[in-house]
Q: What sequence folds into this?
């Protein structure tokens, strides 16, 4: 799409006003007819713009299309880097590291992340945490959970795990046993398979370009 | 068609009005459930170990939020069943079917609540999403319940359209109602699909959440409040309908693309930052118009009305909608602010104030109007001392609750988001800060006060007008 948001906004409002005025010729601006026309016209035009933008957005947020990473991203190192042009953090994909000691094919990665998403929903994570900033406000935002330095600094020593994914799995197995701060996460009775999938989902999500949210993630500690 | 509604007299109720009474009764019971689970969740903020294994925060909050959505929707639909026969001058078409689906829905809500309470979670597969919960905030209801809700709304829509057709006359209010209900139902179906792509998931999820509360519900409120003002003040139809059209033009004109204020940070393209910020910043405009309308109408009648509690809740609704949705919403809707406040306690402050102001006020207006007409003969004017206590206590405590959330939201925004970069440690740093930690108790205290207000409200609804009723016999 080659239009800027200002062009879209101005065009939508301009069209709404002009069409309303044309349809309401002969009626004063205090008459019900004038406002009835305004209501119908503005609703339809705004709905039309929304649908049109939805097609554009849907295309750009397909996995692998740029903003949302391909499933196979779980095989790689992910970092947040400063983008001098956009002047905000963006996720960057680094060297191949594997995930839980193996390289996952695109299809395997997709299956795993899909299972992870279902696990996330089945345990109602969003009613304590935020996902991309949305959800309840009791626990951490999970958007960049994969990249949280806390895993290396606190959880790896605590669990004796060698890699980040193993530390996450060890901790999520029974969170109340290793409380971090006053608020505790309940034991959600994950199986090992579910945890592997869930962590894959979190890793994949951490590589979504979120226009810089959360701001300056983990820059100051 | 009457330009205004006849004042209440001891007339027989229409069948659909009897159904409306059942709607209101269930709504008020679920209102109580909302408060109980809210208080449990608020207490867990203070004492995180409380019921951690048996009834965790996530379950209490799910029930708190879901009970609210259901009772408010039920209350608004009840208002339509109440006024529809008055507006069309006839019994609602298909009212038997409506009664049937209603009891199915009540039973369904019971099952969903029991499953939430005692099953809570399931394995990570599609069966869980079908039968236990969908794990998506506000629309957790399992898929089977989604389908039941769609059937329910479809029958409701049929009632409204078929009754309008049978009356062979469409009014502006009915036109807006039908237009709005079609959108409201269609939007729900957009948000009930599973997709692995979390960005797409949230993109459509907001069609339900935002386009319900900031578009279609607002317009539904415009319709039932229009009917309420005609009843309470005898406001002429032409005035009501002109204002309603203006409100629809502004609500849909700003709110549909205002949806973009939820698309700043979920992975969607940059143009949403501009579009969402611009249109959502204009969303308070219709809310200002509603305040002007309410103040003008009430002032023109010097507060003379047939039903004082209903009129006061109607006026409170106009102000509450403006303050809760307009002011607290605007406070965090510009992207440069939302980057920091997104997903903090500030969103909860706004959510509480907006839902209370816009929707609780509306449903209570409707309930008091209905109550007046089941006391025989209808008491004019309907009044009591108690309603004003409930009114004052509930308004005071919702500001107390939202105020506490706002203060913890400020601390969280600054410490977790702005200073410390939103990590696990950053969250702990923010919620142990005194501004956040100490206001948790205020929040709980005001919650208890709200519960007292609720109990007074229930007692008043059961007794108001009874004395006059007894005297008449
Ligand atoms: C009666 C109408 C409204 C209701 C019931 C309502 C309710 C809510 C609720 C419950 C949330 C929290 C969503 C979440 O879980 O993250 C929310 C978020 C939000 N609302 Fe509203 N709202 C209303 C109107 C408005 C208006 C008119 C505006 C703008 C002027 C607005 C701006 C926002 C913003 C910016 C957020 C996102 C907060 C964040 O980034 O975390 N709302 N609203
Ligand atoms: Fe919104």
A:
């Amino acid at each position: 799409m080659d239009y800027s948001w200002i062009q879209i906004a101005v065009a939508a409002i301009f069209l709404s006003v002009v069409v309303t005025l044309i349809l309401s010729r002969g009626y004063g601006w205090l008459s019900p007819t004038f406002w009835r026309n305004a209501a119908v016209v503005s609703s339809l035009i705004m709905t039309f713009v929304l649908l049109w933008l939805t097609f554009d957005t849907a295309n750009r947020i397909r996995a692998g299309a740029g903003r949302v990473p391909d499933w196979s991203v779980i095989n790689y190192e992910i970092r947040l880097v400063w983008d001098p042009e956009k002047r905000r953090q963006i996720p960057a994909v680094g060297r191949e590291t594997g995930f839980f000691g193996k390289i996952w094919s695109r299809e395997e990665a997709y299956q795993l992340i899909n299972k992870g998403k279902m696990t996330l929903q089945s345990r109602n994570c969003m009613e304590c945490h935020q996902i991309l900033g949305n959800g309840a406000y009791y626990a951490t935002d999970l958007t960049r959970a994969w990249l949280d330095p806390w895993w290396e600094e606190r959880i790896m020593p605590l669990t004796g795990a060698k890699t980040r994914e193993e530390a996450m799995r060890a901790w999520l197995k029974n969170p109340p046993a290793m409380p971090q701060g006053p608020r505790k996460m309940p034991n959600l009775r994950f199986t090992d398979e579910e945890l592997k999938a869930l962590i894959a989902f979190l890793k994949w999500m951490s590589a979504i370009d979120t226009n810089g949210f959360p701001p300056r993630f983990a820059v100051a500690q | 068609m009457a330009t205004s509604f006849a004042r209440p007299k001891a007339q027989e109720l229409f069948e659909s009005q009897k159904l409306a009474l059942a709607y209101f009764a269930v709504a008020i019971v679920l209102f109580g459930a909302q408060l109980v689970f809210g208080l449990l969740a608020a207490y867990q903020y203070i004492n995180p170990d409380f019921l951690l294994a048996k009834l965790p925060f996530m379950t209490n909050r799910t029930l708190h939020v879901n009970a609210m959505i259901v009772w408010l929707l039920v209350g608004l639909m009840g208002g339509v069943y109440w006024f529809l026969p008055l507006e069309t001058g006839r019994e609602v078409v298909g009212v038997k079917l409506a009664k049937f689906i209603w009891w199915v829905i009540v039973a369904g809500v019971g099952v969903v609540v029991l499953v939430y309470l005692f099953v809570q979670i399931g394995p990570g597969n599609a069966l869980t999403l079908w039968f236990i919960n969908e794990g998506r905030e506000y629309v957790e209801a399992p898929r089977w319940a989604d389908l039941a809700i769609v059937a329910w709304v479809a029958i409701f829509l049929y009632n409204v359209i078929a009754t309008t057709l049978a009356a062979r006359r469409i009014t502006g209010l009915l036109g807006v109602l039908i237009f709005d209900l079609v959108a409201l139902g269609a939007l729900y179906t957009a948000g009930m699909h599973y997709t692995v792509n979390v960005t797409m998931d949230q993109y459509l999820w907001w069609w339900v959440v935002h386009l319900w509360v900031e578009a279609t519900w607002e317009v539904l409120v415009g319709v039932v409040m229009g009917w309420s003002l005609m009843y309470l003040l005898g406001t002429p139809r032409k005035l009501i309908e002109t204002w309603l059209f203006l409100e629809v033009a502004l609500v849909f004109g700003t709110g549909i693309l205002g949806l973009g204020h939820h698309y700043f940070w979920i992975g969607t393209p940059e143009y949403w930052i501009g579009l969402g910020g611009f249109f959502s910043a204009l969303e308070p405009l219709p809310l200002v118009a509603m305040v002007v309308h309410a103040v003008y109408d009430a002032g023109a009648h010097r507060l003379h009305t047939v039903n004082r509690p209903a009129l006061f809740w109607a006026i409170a609704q106009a102000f509450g909608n403006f303050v809760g949705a307009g002011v607290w919403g605007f406070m965090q809707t510009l992207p440069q602010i939302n980057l920091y406040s997104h997903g903090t306690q500030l969103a909860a402050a706004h959510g509480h104030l907006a839902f209370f102001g816009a929707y609780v006020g509306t449903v209570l207006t409707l309930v008091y109007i209905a109550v007046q007409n089941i006391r025989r003969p209808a008491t004019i004017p309907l009044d009591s001392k108690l309603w004003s206590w409930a009114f004052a206590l509930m308004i005071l405590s919702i500001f107390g609750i939202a105020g506490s959330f706002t203060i913890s939201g400020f601390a969280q925004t600054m410490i977790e988001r702005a200073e410390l970069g939103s990590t696990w440690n950053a969250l702990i740093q923010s919620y142990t800060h005194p501004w956040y930690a100490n206001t948790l108790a205020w929040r709980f205290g005001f919650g208890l006060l709200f519960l007292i207000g609720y109990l007074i409200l229930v007692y008043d609804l059961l007794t108001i007008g009874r004395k006059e009723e007894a005297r008449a016999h």
Notes: The mean pLDDT of chain B is 94. Chain B touches chain A through 91 residues (CB under 8 Å).
